[in-house]
Amino acid sequence: MSAAAAQDAENIVIAEPARIVFPDVGFTRADVAGYYRRVAPRLLAGIAGRPLSLLRCPDGLAGGCFFQRHPEPGWDAAVRRFALASKDGRRTNCMYVDDARGLLELVRLGVLELHVWGSSAHMPERPDRAVFDLDPGEGVAWARVIEAARDIRALLARRGLRSFVRLTGGKGMHVVLPVAPGPDWQTVKTFSQSLAQRLAQAHPDRYVAR
Q: If DSSP codes are grouped into helix, strand and coil, which group holds residue 100?
């Protein structure tokens, strides 16, 4: 991240910085902004230029939250827009960020979660990642989640495919498989589902494919 981009991020003014947004731990809007300023270089390496869906909680978790896929008029230009054709043929604006200023602008808007698409904003209909979402059921130990990630990576490796693991920010893991852009979403989805179903059939006592 350049010095200019970092300075732009520092210049974002967070309204009501003392407002509690994570009541269980007492974290404020200022705490969230400070966290994103610190992690911006690493975070942007994984999300810059990728369409985003947002969980916005303007009044904190206790005040109600909502998902948002489309930017609103009047938002800062650091939240980038791109046009995407919907199923009915209409074109709608979606959004992405590509620098720390855009990231902090989302924080200013009360965003607490960033949900990243598996494609770029320049080729939104051509995924470049397949994601296997490991969501543990009630009472499933963390060690079992790690074991599941290893099983999926082993299945992929036997096909000559290299994957990596990310924490979800919740209670699970993502096994991420980079894909050369070309296949459409349905093709990638079909492949991912077939692999998940194979794992569930081989170990029905451990896995459920959805």
A: helix
